[in-house]
Give the backbone structure.
Amino acid sequence: MRVLHAMVWAAAMVAGSVYAQAAPKLIRLATLEWPPYTGTLLPQDGLSTRVATVVAKAAGFRLVTASFEWASTVEKGEKDPNFDGYFPEYYTKEREQNCHLSQAMGTSVLGLATLKSAPISWTALSDLSNARLGVVDGYSNGEEFDFLVKEKRQPVEVAPSDAVNINKLKAGKIKGIVIDKNVLDYTLTHVGGADRIAFSSRPIAELSLHVCFKRTPAGLALRNAFDAALKSTDRSKVEADYSKLIRG
C-alpha cells in the first residue's frame, strides 16, 4: 500500500511539474475604461490591451487586466501586490521616476473639444487662460499645459473620467475639455453628439503611451522582457488588424 501511495504521489508531482512548465507566467496590470484604447466591452478589450497582449505573449507571459477609475488604476498599479503595474500611461519625467516605463506602445493626440456653437479661439496655450477647462483627475495633459495649471495660470475643473467631461460639455456646463482625439471620436460615434462638438485642429500635446511597471527589481525584469518583445513586434500591423476588426 505504501508503494502504491508513493507511486500516486510521484505521478501527481510529475503532472503538476508539467502543468507548471506549460502554464505561462502572468503580467497583471491595472487599467481603465478608456475606449478605444482600453475597455471591457471592446473587442479584445481595446487597442492598447491588444498590443500589450501580443507583446506579453511574445515575451512568454499571459496578460491579465482589471479596470478601475484612473486614480485607482495608478494606486493599484504602483502599490497593490496583486498587480505588476498599470497602463496605458503617458510619458512624463515624474512618471519615469515612479515606475519602470516600457518603450512606447502607442501615441495619443490631445486637444481641446468645445461646442460648435461656442468655440474658443486660441493660438498659444496661454490664450486659454480665460476659460475653465475640464480635465480628468490624475491625467497628464502635456508639460506646457500641466505647468500652466500648476502655476494657477490655467483654471481647470477636475472630473473622474472623460465620459463625465463629455457629458458636461454636451450639457453646456463647461466651455471646453482637454481630451484625446480617438477617445472623443469613439465616444461621440457611440453615444451621439458629433454634430455638436468640435475638436481643435491645433493639438495641445502629442504623447506616447506606455506600460508602467512597478519600480522594483521584479518590475524592472518584467519591463525589460516586455521591451525586448515589443522591439520585435510589428506594432503597426497589430494596430491595422485591430482597426479592421472594430470596423467589422
Observations:
- Residues 1-20 have pLDDT under 50 and may be disordered.
- Strands lie at 25-31, 61-67, 85-90, 99-101, 106-115, 133-136, 156-159, 176-180, 197-199, 205-214.
- The chain has nine helices and ten strands.
